[in-house]
Fold this sequence. Notes:
The chain has 4 helices and 6 strands; from the N terminus they run αβααββββαβ. By secondary structure, it is of the alpha+beta class.
Amino acid sequence: MSIKEDYEEADAWGLSSNIDLYDCEPGLIRDAEYIRCFVYKLCDYLGMKRFGDCTVVHFGEKEEIAGYSMTQLIETSLISGHFANKTNAVYLDVFSCKFYDPALAAEMAKEYFKGKDVRVRYTLRK
C-alpha cells in the first residue's frame, strides 16, 4: 500500500515525517541563507503555502549539538530542522494536514545538501 493510500484509508488528519540526512556537504549546512532558500524551495515543491518568514538561528554551546536550526510555519502546520556541524547531518521534520510525499521531500533535501545517505520515517496523525 502506498503512503497516500494509507493516508486516505486511515482518514488521517495529518502526516508527520522525519528525514535524516547523513554526510552532507559541510559548507551547505553552515550557510543560513542556503538553508532559508532550501525551505522556500521545499515549500514550493510540496505545494505548501508559507506563513511568515523562515527563521534560521545558530546555537549550541556544546560541539555535539552546535549548528543551525530552522522553523517555517506553513498554513497546514510546520517545517523544522537542525543542521549538526559535528556530524554534517540534517534532521528535518515536516508536519502537515495536507498530504505530501515524504520520499519526494527526502529526495529534494538529499540532493540540495548533497547528503550521502538518507533515512525517512513517517507517522499518520489522527
